[in-house]
Amino acid sequence: MAENILQLKEVAIFQKENLILNEINLEVKAGDFVYLIGKTGSGKSSFMKTLYGDLPLQEGEGSIVGFDLKKLKENDIPFLRRKLGIVFQDFKLLLDRNVNNNLRFVLRATGWKDENKMAKRIEEVLTKVDMKTKGFKFPHELSGGEQQRIAIARSLLNDPELILADEPTGNLDPQTSVEVMKVLQEINKNGRTILMATHDYALILKYPSKTLKCDGNKVFEVIQKAV
Ligand SMILES: Nc1ncnc2c1ncn2[C@@H]1O[C@H](COP(=O)(O)OP(=O)(O)OP(=O)(O)O)[C@@H](O)[C@H]1O
């Protein structure tokens, strides 16, 4: 049986003193592709932030890629983030340097030192997202879809056990969204676990997978109807 990459038991999520989500119970297993849907303000980003240690887990129990979220200390967060790949809606690339140097910056910050090994790893992740020839480009020289592919490549640098993608296609047109989604699907086929928050129901219909919904302070699995 595949191991749990993420497990939450009776978790409640707060923003300041406001209860956002309550009684969350879920398991994500190695190799799963899971969507998290829900309307604006339903708590998707708060949920994701709890998973990558940006919001402390105040109530309930949670483990993610071997870390106990309840016992997570400030000092543990960089180590947790090394086992996660995080992809945001707005890409969050550093605008003052080219793609190679964006990726090199992350490698250095996570302890890599050998220049040859770094160059090799950068080439590997750029190849995975079909951007091998774009390493010398600056973010402003790339389309939104290309920037998101670079952000996905960046998330893969340290071989994460789980990728958390928060609205990764939120700034992209429908066709580009499908292209980015194909990249995520390919990464998932190669064995990586992905949790993706999205508004994009067209993508979910095109690429059906386990779907969790945030609604009325709860998170529950929804069964997709065939259309
Ligand atoms: N830093 C914060 N301080 C206080 N309240 C917040 C903060 N961030 C979010 N909230 C509140 O928490 C609730 C959930 O917000 P969240 O961003 O998690 O929703 P979401 O489902 O991700 O929405 P969207 O799809 O618009 O990104 C909202 O009511 C929001 O106003």
From TrEMBL:
SUPFAM superfamilies: P-loop containing nucleoside triphosphate hydrolases (SSF52540). One of its GO terms (cellular component) is plasma membrane. The keyword Nucleotide-binding applies. One of its GO terms (molecular function) is ATP hydrolysis activity. The keyword Nucleotide-binding applies. InterPro entries: AAA+_ATPase, ABC_transporter-like_ATP-bd, ABC_transporter-like_CS, ABC_transpr_LolD-like, P-loop_NTPase. Residues 6-226 form the ABC transporter domain. Keywords: ATP-binding, Nucleotide-binding. PANTHER family: CELL DIVISION ATP-BINDING PROTEIN FTSE, IMPORT ATP-BINDING PROTEIN. Belongs to the ABC transporter superfamily. Part of the ABC transporter FtsEX involved in cellular division. Important for assembly or stability of the septal ring. This is Cell division ATP-binding protein FtsE. It comes from Cerina litoralis.
